[in-house]
Design goal:
Layout: E1 25-27, H1 28-34, H2 41-49, E2 53-55, E3 58-59, E4 65-67, E5 71-76, E6 79-85, H3 98-101, E7 102-104, H4 108-120, H5 134-143, H6 154-157
Helix pairs in contact: 1-2
């Protein structure tokens, strides 16, 4: 049979990384990871599966092939980021090279929403921050005290023995 056992196709053989030589397309989940939009490829794939990644207003699968020139919208609440694909890659690159990979075309109003949410902060306790402190507990008790709701003088108005 010779040296080549027939397991590899010469057009796709580039050292075993699975990408085609001179590829002008890339899998969406790989591109989102390689462009450092998501920290891991599995997180990128989960975002696609859960409908947080859209192209042309429709949700897309992680296996969708993207081309240069397409626009990808990623919803990371409370903001929806938009990126124009300049180069299709499937291997992660350094942060300094990201300007060659995509162009951020996010609407400036989205950044205003992000800033407003940072300023307003959360009224509720963040989940996983542990038990309330003694000061927090006293503040909650003072907030929910019966006098506040007018139940303190309830005994004066009603005579239950009659």
């Amino acid at each position: 049979m010779g040296k080549d056992s027939g397991n590899r196709h010469p057009a796709t053989d580039n050292g075993g990384n699975g990408a085609k030589q001179g590829a002008d397309v890339a899998r969406l989940d790989k591109w989102l990871w390689a462009a450092r939009i998501f920290k891991t490829r599995s997180v990128a794939a989960d975002a696609c599966k859960n409908g947080r990644v859209m192209m042309n207003g429709t949700s897309v699968k992680p296996s969708r092939m993207i081309k240069a020139g397409e626009t990808v919208s990623v919803r990371k609440p409370p903001v929806t980021y938009s990126f124009k694909v300049l180069k299709c890659i499937e291997q992660r690159v350094g942060a300094k090279l990201l300007a060659d990979i995509y162009e951020n075309v996010t609407d400036p109003k989205q950044y205003e929403i992000l800033e407003m949410s940072r300023i307003s902060g959360f009224v509720d306790r963040a989940r996983g921050t542990g038990r309330p402190t003694k000061k927090d507990r006293r503040a909650m008790e003072a907030f929910a005290e019966p006098v506040m709701f007018g139940f303190d003088d309830m005994d004066d108005e009603f005579d239950f023995d009659d």
